Amino acid sequence: MRNRRRSSFTAEAAAAARAYGAMQTDPKLRCPDDMAIRLLGGFFRFALLPGIRNRFVEQYERRAAGVFFHHQARTKYIDGVLLSELAAGAAQVVLLGAGFDSRAYRFASDLKDVGVFEVDHPATSAVKQRRVRRILGALPKHVTYVPVNFTSERVEERLAAAQYDPSRATLFICEGVLPYLDAATVGATFAMVARAARRSSIVFDYLHKSALERPDPLAKKHLEVTAKMGEPYQFGVDPEGLAALLARHELVVEESLSADDLGARYLVGSDTKRWGEVTPFLSLAFVRH
């Protein structure tokens, strides 16, 4: 991620996609993030007004085909992972690149005795905190906000200063982040997970390396769009080499889902028709220490 003074546009665009998804009438397609709309700023709130939002998905698809549907599917999957890991005894949740993620608030009752650490760029974290105060009246006591510049600061050190305890089982959520980091920062992230307590885990989505090294027309369009927004894609993973990459850090892949897997699981409506297609070079993985 480049150094920046403003809040992340891509983080807010992702929240807007979730907000639109939460408006769907089909319960099989509806995005569970019913709080996303409240975390948006004026531009995206306007874009989602009745009569205007009808073209929202069309515009999203025109700019970066498949990403809107990727947001819908990964939200449902990661929500499920969160509840499953809490049931299995996770004592801490660390959101890496938290953006406008609302899980700490949507699942407040499940997380009241669990330490939640929202890690993000200082500019985005500041905006997020202002909006949470506006919505809830005060920042929740179970959430610790950890402003970090991923490229110039050590996330692990900033977490330690915020009272994160690596001896406690932790779920790391890294949603929509890895593609924007450099290889060294990604490696440091996996190493941090490996130093956490046994049975800790991380869930993340990732860009296929081929989209960076041998981009087809669709990938080229995505690369152009993210670069223009000042948040270019930098890191990719070969899906076939994912297990070996993680094994270097003593991490094991519990589940890996391709774009088609995500679509089949989360984007089929009550009419048995698929709502849309996830970007083919985006995948999702759940990994255990």
Explained architecture:
With 289 residues, the chain is α/β, with parallel strands linked by helices. The chain has a single domain (9-288), classed as Rossmann fold, CATH 3.40.50.150. 42% of the residues lie in helices and 14% in strands. It has helices at 9-21, 42-47, 56-63, 67-87, 103-106, 108-111, 122-136, 155-161, 183-195, 209-213, 217-228, 242-247, 259-266, and strands at 92-96, 115-120, 143-147, 170-174, 201-207, 252-257, 282-288. Helix 1 (9-21) packs across helix 4 (67-87). The protein is globular and about 50 Å long. The two termini are 26 Å apart.
Write out key terms for the chains shown:
7 strands; 13 helices; seven-stranded mixed β-sheet; 289 residues; single chain
CATH topology: Rossmann fold
Quickly count the helices. Answer: 13
Helical content stands at 40-55%
CATH architecture: 3-Layer(aba) Sandwich
Largest sheet data? 7 strands, mixed
How confident overall, as mean pLDDT?
A: 94
Can you tell me the residue ranges where pLDDT is under 50 for at least 5 consecutive residues?
none
